[in-house]
Amino acid sequence: MISKKFSALAAGFVLALGVTACSGGGAGDTSADASVAPEDATVGVSMPTQTSERWIADGAAVESGLKDAGYDVNIQFAGDDIPTQQQQIDSMITQGVDLLIIASIDGTALSSQLDAAKAENIPVIAYDRLINGSANVDFYVTFDNYQVGVQQATALLTGLGIVTPQGEGDATGPFNVELFAGSLDDNNAHFFWAGAIDTLQPYIDEGTLVVRSGQTTIEQAATLRWQQEVAQKRMEDILTANYASDLVQGVLSPFDGASRGVITALQNAGYGTTEKPMPIITGQDAEIASVKLINDGVQNSTIFKDTRKLAEQAIISAEAYLSGEEPVANDTKSYDNGVKVVPAFLLESDIVYKSDIQSLLIDSGYYTAAEVEAGQAE
């Protein structure tokens, strides 16, 4: 179902692999004579879950691109269960994979697995989520996660009319808003939050934005495992405790699944009518169900992180290591995992409002118009 979106990129993957690498040392023995021919190499790919269409798409893109480049692939999904992911990675190492690409569930829970990989000279690429507390993370491919948070906050301010693409808007508030964050065990959640709060705090300080719940720390706003039902329950509790007579007018949501949970809570409370308009609600990942909600005027925006480009960059980086070289990094300062600063390649993301669906999602081939209309990928 998902793979059709990425099949057109296969030729691009093959052409791009190896051309962006520069010589240098990596994990273990990565000298030129340590290179591994594609037909002799197996790449282990560890993805966190299949409950999110985003991770299904990532897994499909990485697997397809690696196979098209000639590598064997051992891909596993861990069902959002940390011990399962640990066991799966241990098994990959035991089976003798030549490289690991890991999107971790908990960025602090894989130190022993990375130690074992180091002992076997297996390079480790962290995929979209930084792995913390280990010196044995060799490279990181991700989006500019602080900027994603800035974009989410900007989308909220734009939706409320406080700012426009050209600068300051006409709306002065005060506006009642509530803040949601991602899962505390995901390093990205902290970058998203930092970017968003740095952008929103001046408006909170001056009273343009009012957080009636008073829940303004990431610990208070966190959504365990990014789960939709967790976000829904928290929104229900916030509405009950703080909005008996007032209306919430904006919600900073870090992820489309959480956004749908927030929307369900709001709809159950009577929002979405003339008397109780749906608040401005942000999101992330351009999940098809949420793209339809944006197209229908229910959700205001999402952040599009084109996972096709992320998968391509992961494959380019893997090819460099397997060729005995070192992948190119465009950030060597931002991602300190507590033990080392991990070299990274950062990709750019886009804000998607209703007016951007055609140009960013349909024209690029990410979704079809029929998929957007149906809210379901074919």
TrEMBL record:
GO terms for molecular function: carbohydrate binding. Residues 43-326 form the Periplasmic binding protein domain. Gene3D superfamilies: 3.40.50.2300. It is found in: Cell envelope. It holds the Pfam family Peripla_BP_4. PROSITE patterns: PROKAR_LIPOPROTEIN. InterPro entries: Bact_Solute-Bind_Prot2 (IPR050555), ChvE-like (IPR049784), Peripla_BP_I (IPR028082), SBP_2_dom (IPR025997). Coiled coil: none annotated. One of its GO terms (cellular component) is outer membrane-bounded periplasmic space. This is Monosaccharide ABC transporter substrate-binding protein (CUT2 family). The lineage of its organism: Bacteria, Bacillati, Actinomycetota, Actinomycetes, Micrococcales.
